[in-house]
Amino acid sequence: MTSRLTERAGRSMGTRNWWVLRDVLGITGPKYGCGINVCKACTSHLNGKAINPCAIPVQDLEPADEVTTIEGLAATAGADLHPMQRAWLDHDVAQCGYCQPGQIMAAVALVRRAAAEGREITDADLDGLRNICRCGTYFRIREAIKAAAALG
Questions:
Q1: Whole-structure pTM over 0.85, yes or no?
Q2: Contact predicate 14/59, CB 8 Å
Q3: Which run of H or E residues covers position 88?
Q4: Is 93 helix (H, G, I), strand (E, B) or coil?
Q5: DSSP-derived secondary structure for 106-152
Q6: d(C-alpha 96, C-alpha 76), whole Å
Q7: What's 16's DSSP letter?
Q8: What does the DSSP assignment read for 54-81?
Q9: What is the pLDDT of residues 8-48, one digit of tens each?
């Protein structure tokens, strides 16, 4: 997807990745919250790691970089829903839903990182997630992450 980002926006522009995703490519999963890398509503993946597109200029992306948004997450698991998305539904996490794409993307990156390190998710890991949920469903978010992580 990165080559599409840079081709459509131009590498010399100071345009942030988020604006290209939303306004140029029509990808609506990453939400606009703060625009300054604080709320994490826009969390997506860059080469499998959680990033916030509102803070990354398009010209900083390389042609080989892979940007994944919530829209492409299920495909990374080869299923209709990623296990984290299924856990979100099973634990009835969403209320308003605005922050959920960013929450899920951050959670998937966290679980992948812990698995790569050969360990389980800890409360300290969950405490390190900084995605803001205005509805306050943090307990259900934590339970869903633990459930999805347990699936491997």
A1: yes
A2: yes
A3: helix 83-90
A4: coil
A5: HHHHHHHHHHHTT----HHHHHH-----TT--HHHHHHHHHHHHHT-
A6: 26
A7: B
A8: GG-BGGG--TT--EE-HHHHHHHHTSSS
A9: 555 546 889 999 999 999 999 999 999 999 999 999 999 99
